[in-house]
Amino acid sequence: MKMRWILPFLLVGALALPGLAQSPVMDARQLAARVDARYNAMKTLRADFTESYSGGGMHRSESGTLLLKKPGRMRWEYTSPRHKLFVTDGAMAWFYVPGEAQARRTRLKNLDDLRSPLRLLLGHAHLEKELRGLSLAPDVQPTTPGGVMLRGIPVGMEDRVSQVLLECDGEGWVRRMVMAELDGSTTEFRFSQQKENVPLSEAGFKFSPPAGVEVLEGGTLTP
C-alpha cells in the first residue's frame, strides 16, 4: 500500500480571519498567509477525516479521527472499515493494526509517508516555502462553498509527488488535501468537525506494543 500520512503534518490560528469573498484579488501568497496564520496560532487540533486512495486499479476509502498537538505530535485513529493506528510523539512514529503480530516504527525525521506534509503545520507553517511552485489552481473544482484551491509540490518529495492540492476556506482552514504521485496514484484527505485548542493528553501520543507483538524498524509504516 502507498504511504499516505503526508497530509497529516500540513495541518496544525485561533484567529477569525475574513472571508475570501472580501478579497476578490486574493492571490496564492495571500491565501497561504491566511492558512499560516490560522495554524501557527493553534496548539492542538481535533478533526474527523476521510482518506481515499486510487491507483493501480485499486480504490480504497477509510475514515477516523485525527489529533494534532504541537510540537510534532499526531494520532491517526482509523475506525472504518478496520481499526488501525498511526501515532507520533514528536520523535518516533508507530503504525499498528490491533490483533496483528507486528508493529512498525521509525524515527519521525526518516518517515517517508504521504501524511508527512501535515506535520509542517505542527511546527511553524510557511506554505510558500514548504510548497514549491505555489499557485492557485482555478482548474480544480473545490468541494466546499467559497473554497479556493492551492497547488504546489512538497519540498523534498519531488521524486515522488507530482503535485499537492490544498482546498482552503475563507477562515484559513485546510478542508481537503489531494496528493498526486508520479506513478499516477492519488491520495485524498478530507477534514471535517475541526476543533482547535482542545485539551489533549500526552498519553494519547504514546504507544507501547502489546505483549508478544514484534517491533519492526523501517521507514514504511503502512502494510
Structure commentary:
This protein has 223 residues and is mainly beta. It has a single domain (7-12, 18-210), classed as Lipoprotein localisation LolA/LolB/LppX (outer membrane lipoprotein receptor (LolB), chain A). 8% of the residues lie in helices and 42% in strands. It is built from 2 helices and 12 strands. Strand 9 (161-168) and strand 10 (174-181) form a beta hairpin. The model is unreliable at 1-25 (pLDDT under 50).
Notable characteristics:
223 residues, globular, 2 helices, mainly beta, outer membrane lipoprotein receptor (LolB), chain A, disordered N terminus
So how many helices? 2
Could you name the CATH topology?
outer membrane lipoprotein receptor (LolB), chain A
Give average pLDDT, whole number.
84
Order of helices and strands: HEEEEEEHEEEEEE
Low-pLDDT ranges? 1-25
Q: Return the structural class.
A: mainly beta
Any guess at the CATH architecture? Clam
Give the helix proportion (percent range): under 10%
Distance between the termini: 6 Å
Name of the CATH homologous superfamily: Lipoprotein localisation LolA/LolB/LppX
Rg to the nearest angstrom? 17 Å
In CATH's first tier, which class applies?
Mainly Beta
Strand percentage: 35-45%
Shape: globular
Please count the beta strands (DSSP E, at least 2 residues each). 12
The total number of structural domains is 1
Largest sheet: 12 strands, mixed
Q: If strands are numbered along the chain, what order do they take across the biggest sheet?
A: 7-8-9-10-11-1-2-3-4-5-6-12
